[in-house]
Every structure is written in C-alpha cells, then in structure tokens.
Amino acid sequence: MAKISSLNVRVVEGRALPAKDVSGSSDPYCIVKVDDEVVARTATVWRSLSPFWGEEYTVHLPLDFHHLAFYVLDEDTVGHDDIIGKISLSREAIAADPRGIDSWINLSPVDPDAEVQGEIYLAVQMLEDMRGRCLRCHVLKARDLAPRDISGTSDPFARVFWGSQSLETSTIKKTRFPHWDEVLELREMPGGPSPLRVELWDWDMVGKNDFLGMVEFPPKVLQQNPPNGWFRLLPFPRAEEDSGGSLGALRLKVRLLEDRVLPSRCYRPLLELLMESVLQPAEEDVSSPLAVLEELTSGDCRQDLATKLAKLFLGQGLAGPFLDYLTRRELARTTDPNTLFRSNSLASKSMEQFMKLVGMPYLHEVLKPVISRVFEEKKYIELDPSKMDLGRTKRLSFKGSASEEHVREASLGLLMGYLGPIVDAIVGSVGRCPPAMRLAFKQLYRRVEERFPRDEHKDVKYLAISGFLFLRFFAPAILTPKLFDLRDQHADPQTGRSLLLLAKAVQSIGNLGQQLGQGKELWMAPLHPFLLQSILRVRDFLDQLVDVDGEEEAEGPARALVPPSVTVREGYLLKRKEEPGGLATRFAFKKRYFWLSGETLSYAKSPECQVVTQDGTGTLHTTYLQCRNVNDLNQWLSALRKASAPNPDKLATCHPGAFRGARWTCCLQAELSAAGCSHTHSAVTLGDWSDPLDPDAETQMVYRQLLLGRDQLRMKFLEDFNADSSPEADREDSGAMEGACPDALAGQREAAARLLEVLEDLDGAHEEFQRQEQGKAAPGLRRP
C-alpha cells in the first residue's frame, strides 16, 4: 500500500498585465513553485499584456507540501527580469474543493519579507532549577536559505525570542547553509507562558538587515513536546495584500489528488469487470460497467477518465479491444456519419489519449524537422488580405511597398516550402507509425465500413481515421508545438501566424477537402490545387496504414517502473568533472550527449545541477552538469529521481556548492568528506507521457471517479426498482436509455448492482487499511 499526492496545474492565460518595457508592452512568462522548489517555467509570450500559455503540468509531490505559487515575470534581454506579481495558493485552499480551482485570480505584489525558503534545525529543552524555569535553545544549522546578497549567498544569524528576552547567534558569512551549533539559554520572566520565536536574518553592513524567515512554537508545545528537528521557515504573518487587479490576473486550473493505493489484489474485481466489458461480443452494449461510467462522467471528468482507462488497458495489453468497444458504442448511436467522433465522447477522448501515449516519438520524428525550420527562419507569411502588412517589405529593403499580389505569391511559395515536406513526411511514415496505432486504425476502418457500407458513405472510413490522426494529433501539434514538446518556447506572433496557416492546411487535408471553397476563408484558394493533390496521396497513405497484420494484443509489454535497459531521457548537456583546484571557468565545460536509463547515467545542461558518479573501485566523484534552461533542468531532475527511486544506495544528503579554498562554498565545512549540508530531493517529479504505467494507481483513480457518481448510480438505475417495476416506470427510469428494451434495462441495473458491490468491497478495504495504520500509531499516542 502506498500514498500518492499529485497536482494537476494548468496555466491558461493572463489579462491586463502592466507594461514593463519602453514599447508599452511586456514579454511575460510564469514560474511555478511548490514550496521552495521551482517545478516549471512557461514559455515567454512576446509583446503581450494578455498572454495565452495553455501549458499543463502534472507534479507528483511529497504528502506534506504546503503551498503552490505562481510568479509572473517580464523577460528582459539585458539585466534582470522584472517581477510583475505572484499568486500563492495554500494546500488547504486547493484541497477545499475536490474539483479543484478553475478561475481568474488577481496578481499580488511580491513582498521580499514574504519570499522566504529553507529550514532550520533546533533542539529545545525546558529546564527547571532553584532559580526558576529556563529555556535552552540549541541552534544547530539551517539549509537552503534565500540568497539576499548580490553574491547569491547571505550572511545569516539567528535571533531567539522568549517572553521579553532575546538572544542572537553569531553571523556566518557568505553561505546559505550555515552551521552555528550554539546553545542559547533564556530565563522565564514574571508573567504568563510565552511562545518561542526564532527568526533568521541576513546581516548587512549598510542599511537594514534582510529577513530570512521564522518559526514559532506556542507554550503548550514547548511544555508537552519540545521541538527537536528540522522546521520549515515561514514569513511574518500578515494579511494578503490585494492589488485590486492593478497587476493583472491569471486564469488557473489547479486540482490536488491525494489518495491511498491498495495492494493489487484489492483491485482485481474492478479490473475484471472493466476487462470483461471490452471482451463482450455484443455490438450494442448498454449494460457494461464502462457504459455506466460513460453515463456518469462529462467534461473534465470524462477527459481524466479517458486518460486513466487508456493507460489501464494499454498496461493490460487490451488497448485494441478497449478502443474497439468504444468505437462500437459510438457507431451504434450515430445515425449521421457527418457527426461521427465529432463530440468529446469517451471514444474520442480515449483515442486521443491513446495516440499521445504510444505515438509521441512518431509525432516528433515526422514533424520536428519542419517545425524547427519555421522557428529558425522566421519568414513572413500571410494570405489573408485583411492581415497583410504591405509596408513590411519597404521597411526591410528600403524599396517601395510591395503589392498585395506580390506578398501573396511570396507567402504562397514559402507556405508550400513548409507544407510540402510535412505532407511528404506524413505519407512516407507508414513504417514508422507504432504498430499499436496502426492496429487501432485498422479496427476503426473496419467498424466504420461495416456501419456505413453504402457508396455515398465511402469516405467515412477515411474521415474517421484522418479525423483523429490529422485533426486531433498532427494539426494541434503544428499549431502549438510547445505543448507537444516540439519546442521549448511558444512562437512569436509572426511565427505563430505561419504555424496557424500550416495547421489550417493540414486540417483541410485531414477533412479530405470536404470544406474546400466554403466558409469565410476564401483567401486560402491559392492553396487548393496543392491540397487536392495531397488528399489523393493521403488516401493512399491511409490504405497503407491499415494494411497491417497482427493481433490486437500486440501493444508490446507494459512500461515498468523505469526498465533498466530503457533510455528514459537523452540529450545534450554541458559537463565538468570536479577538479582539486576549485571552480573552473565556463570554458571548462564540455558539450556531451547523455543517456539516462534505469541503471546508468552515461554521458548531460542546469544552473548548479550536481550528479555524483562512481568508478569501478567504489570511489565517489562529483560531476557538474549544466542545462539549457530551468525547464530542461526540471525534466532532467525529474527523470533522475524516477530512475533512482529504487536505488538503495542513493545519497540522502549532498553539497550544492563546490569544494574550493579548503572548504565547501555552501556550508563552509573544511572537510572534503563532510556530510552533505542539503538533503537530496526525491519526491517532486513531473508527470510525462512516457511515464511508466501503474495499473493499481490508475484503477484507484477509476474507483474514485465511480465514487463521485455513486449516489447518481443508485438513483438512476436502482432506486424504486423493487417498488415499481412496471413498463411505465422502466421507461421513466433513465432518459439516456430511452427506447431500450426491458432486457437491456434489466442488464443495466445488474451492471450497476455489480459495480456498487465492487465499490463497497473497496470501501471496506480502505477502511481496514486505515484502521491498521491507526493501530500502528496508537501505541505512540498512548505513551505519556
């Protein structure tokens, strides 16, 4: 049994941000922090006060995290980036609603005294002698303090308050990891019991000292359970300042998931019910657990359910039957082929998530070369006369303004220069498309052909496949390559317009030309001859794509928890080994290509990223790696944490600094072999499409989805069934089952009853494990 905690974070957009540049605009980006750790950075949106990011992250967390913060900054080419504002959400605020937060939130100003981080180690004793009571506070050390000086360090000292008395430790210069090991004793003065407050400050020779954080303990805690250990530093308590919207606002979607994952045997009955559903041969299935699940979910819940189910069946080797089952359900209730898979049904969402799970390397291989060209060349492309900038040529070449026809012809040539290679790459990718995707499309092709066999519907089977592959996979990736990991940054407005035109063209090809020449975008007409020619090639491509042999179970083995021989991340990093002489210049770093697997890190880029390697003799060595940016750093750190999770020899502490001048620059310890002053972070990781499948966690989430609709399940399918089983009551019982036969309704009720029974069993298992946990903790609670 294990406990899991994760945050689903979506930074949607901003509005009414203040202008920070002389141009009257800003270049905003957003940093996401969990407690003191930066976990993500959005791309920069250039020259915008109402930026759209649309970036989504899944962050796996320690169970005791405290708050989530969003900082909006303006990127500057020269000097430091300007801070615009922040939003801070406590764990309690996020967990207050199971559906999470989905709203616009005003940015607040950033108060330096509130920007604290790090921990302090204290050991407190309450003593009593003939002179009265005495508090002995042993201030040992602190770690990961905020840098307050221009050098990137601080000069910290501690100040201890008890009642009307206060004492200070010595000041440790130029460190964020101070070691004091000082004992301060304070005598109790007349008056009521007083709390203990320990403040950390950065000493400054000129001006006032800078606040680093504080901890406070009430008298009851001092008396019954004196503090002893690491304690997180907190800001001074103060009311949150509301800027009244003057700093702008962010639209955020945040949801916290905290759960207990039971042993696999507890989920076997629910898993069997779900597997049984997809293996049923019936074309019209209205009584399976999956059918009931679809009835109970909508919107975002259906999206989450589709993701978990796609992973679950992929891990069981039944992704093909699962998608085929959903296809049959969708076809059974579709009468107009023009509406097939056009809604956000469970079938559509599941196929979409399935393609992302198995097809992302394929997508990168097909699209990345051309997408990179578009970003690097930054050509001006425009076909819409209402958006053409005719004066642009004059500004660039100092000649007269170009005519509309000239701009159109130049843009058409450039667009064809990008679109042609994209089409070539797609139609030539049959052999590179994952077998699981080809088998799923083959099933889809066959089912649609059976449902709509008439000649007038001969294109429907092609449209069904191209609707997923082109409209829901290739076109969105071309439009927003950052969201599909094709680029590190969002496109600037000019490049974004080029990508939009390319995505529109790919959508037209995916629609097999059905809407060419219709609608308001008649300015796309110059592209029509090329699009019609490409459509003929795409039909041949789709025929080849579904011409595949193999069984539906050929999904390949389920992804284990970082299989030892599988490369989980690779790429270029700057590397430098530790040298006795101390820190080297930036020219001492060498560019190397690194591979990370579940067993090794064999020759990888980050601010102050440190990896410890070991030679054949067991000697530890320090290697410094530098990443391109903070996102690259976080992705490498996340991959390293996942890969090293089962490693029993993983170090618990490390030195974030370097050994220079006969001491560590971080904590100033003089011994090279001294224990690390900072703990190694292992809990915060980023979710990724290539993450290992976890059937128990995925089944637990399906169980939670069912719990949300349990009352609706009882009411819709079981309530008053015994009291009134007349045909009239059956017809009124479920609007979704209107027109169904009595046998089907009876089957629906039977399926609902079986699901409720499984839910009750899982409820009982959770309660039993909770009692066991409480039983283990009880002896400690009973000790005096």
TrEMBL record:
<dbReference type="InterPro" id="IPR039360">
    <property type="entry name" value="Ras_GTPase"/>
</dbReference>
<feature type="domain" description="C2">
    <location>
        <begin position="1"/>
        <end position="105"/>
    </location>
</feature>
<dbReference type="GO" id="GO:0005096">
    <property type="term" value="F:GTPase activator activity"/>
</dbReference>
<keyword id="KW-0862">Zinc</keyword>
<keyword id="KW-0677">Repeat</keyword>
<keyword id="KW-0343">GTPase activation</keyword>
<keyword id="KW-0863">Zinc-finger</keyword>
<dbReference type="InterPro" id="IPR008936">
    <property type="entry name" value="Rho_GTPase_activation_prot"/>
</dbReference>
<dbReference type="InterPro" id="IPR023152">
    <property type="entry name" value="RasGAP_CS"/>
</dbReference>
<dbReference type="Pfam" id="PF00616">
    <property type="entry name" value="RasGAP"/>
</dbReference>
<protein>
    <submittedName>
        <fullName>RAS protein activator like 1</fullName>
    </submittedName>
</protein>
<dbReference type="InterPro" id="IPR001936">
    <property type="entry name" value="RasGAP_dom"/>
</dbReference>
<dbReference type="InterPro" id="IPR035892">
    <property type="entry name" value="C2_domain_sf"/>
</dbReference>
<dbReference type="InterPro" id="IPR000008">
    <property type="entry name" value="C2_dom"/>
</dbReference>
<feature type="domain" description="Ras-GAP">
    <location>
        <begin position="301"/>
        <end position="511"/>
    </location>
</feature>
<dbReference type="GO" id="GO:0035556">
    <property type="term" value="P:intracellular signal transduction"/>
</dbReference>
<feature type="domain" description="C2">
    <location>
        <begin position="116"/>
        <end position="231"/>
    </location>
</feature>
<dbReference type="InterPro" id="IPR037776">
    <property type="entry name" value="RASAL_RasGAP"/>
</dbReference>
<dbReference type="InterPro" id="IPR001849">
    <property type="entry name" value="PH_domain"/>
</dbReference>
<dbReference type="InterPro" id="IPR001562">
    <property type="entry name" value="Znf_Btk_motif"/>
</dbReference>
<feature type="region of interest" description="Disordered">
    <location>
        <begin position="723"/>
        <end position="744"/>
    </location>
</feature>
<dbReference type="InterPro" id="IPR011993">
    <property type="entry name" value="PH-like_dom_sf"/>
</dbReference>
<keyword id="KW-0479">Metal-binding</keyword>
<dbReference type="GO" id="GO:0046580">
    <property type="term" value="P:negative regulation of Ras protein signal transduction"/>
</dbReference>
<dbReference type="GO" id="GO:0071277">
    <property type="term" value="P:cellular response to calcium ion"/>
</dbReference>
<dbReference type="Pfam" id="PF00779">
    <property type="entry name" value="BTK"/>
</dbReference>
<dbReference type="GO" id="GO:0008270">
    <property type="term" value="F:zinc ion binding"/>
</dbReference>
<dbReference type="Pfam" id="PF00168">
    <property type="entry name" value="C2"/>
</dbReference>
